[in-house]
Design goal:
8 helices, alpha/beta, 7 strands, seven-stranded parallel sheet
C-alpha cells in the first residue's frame, strides 16, 4: 500500500531526475562508492556506472556499502562493468558528453564549463586517478580549482563538488521540474521503478 504522501514523494523525486550520471573507474573503497551514490541521489541522478578493469577488484566489493549509502542503493540503478568498451558504449548510448576529472594542460575549471547538458562525469580511483585507457573515451577534462599545498581531494568530495556545480547550473537553467508530466516517458519509468521497489 502506497500512501498519498509517499506517492507524491515518488512523483516529485522522479520529476527531479536529471540527464547526468557518474562513472567510477576502479574506485575500490565501498564507503567512497556509497558516499558518491548518496550525492548522486541528492542532485537528481538515477544511475551510476561502476567499472572494474583491475583484476584485484570484483563485483562483490562494491556491493558492501550499505552503511554509507543509507539505503539509497535500493532506489537507484548501479551498472557494473569489467569491459571498458562495453561500459563506455552503454554510457555513450544515453549521454551526449563524457567529462573526465583529470588534470592536464587542457583541463577546464568546472566553474568555467557548461555542465548543464546530458553529461557523464568520469572519476578515477583513489590513487592513480582516471586511467589513460578511460581518458580516450572522454570529450574533455574538468578540474576543481584548488589553492592549498596538496592538490588532491577525496574521490567522494571531488564528486560532490562537481555534481553540485552541475546542479547549480541546472537550477539556473530551470531544469529541475517539480511536477511529473504524463508524457515524460523516462521519468515515468523511474516513477514506476520507485513503486516496484516500494512493494
Amino acid at each position: 500500500m502506497v500512501t498519498e504522501q509517499r506517492d507524491n514523494k515518488f512523483r516529485r523525486v522522479a520529476a527531479y531526475r536529471q540527464a547526468m550520471t557518474v562513472v567510477l573507474e576502479n574506485v575500490h573503497d565501498p564507503h567512497n562508492i556509497g558516499a558518491v551514490l548518496r550525492t548522486c541521489d541528492c542532485v537528481g541522478i538515477q544511475e551510476i556506472y561502476v567499472l572494474y578493469t583491475d583484476e584485484r577488484l570484483s563485483e562483490d566489493r562494491w556491493k558492501d556499502f550499505k552503511v554509507t549509502s543509507t539505503g539509497v542503493k535500493k532506489w537507484m540503478h548501479v551498472h557494473f562493468f569489467t569491459d571498458i568498451d562495453k561500459c563506455f558504449k552503454s554510457v555513450r548510448d544515453k549521454y551526449d558528453k563524457i567529462f573526465a576529472t583529470h588534470l592536464d594542460k587542457n583541463s577546464n575549471s568546472i566553474y568555467n564549463h557548461d555542465l548543464s547538458g546530458s553529461v557523464a562525469f568520469l572519476f578515477g580511483n583513489e590513487h592513480e586517478g582516471v586511467s589513460e585507457n578511460a581518458l580516450k573515451y572522454a570529450d574533455g577534462n574538468i578540474l576543481i580549482p584548488q589553492f592549498g599545498m596538496v592538490q588532491s581531494l577525496n574521490i567522494s568530495v571531488a564528486c560532490a563538488i562537481t555534481l553540485y556545480e552541475s546542479a547549480r547550473q541546472r537550477i539556473n537553467a530551470g531544469l529541475y521540474q517539480s511536477e511529473l508530466m504524463e508524457d515524460d516517458t523516462q521519468r515515468q519509468e523511474i516513477y514506476k521503478h520507485f513503486l516496484a521497489k516500494h512493494k
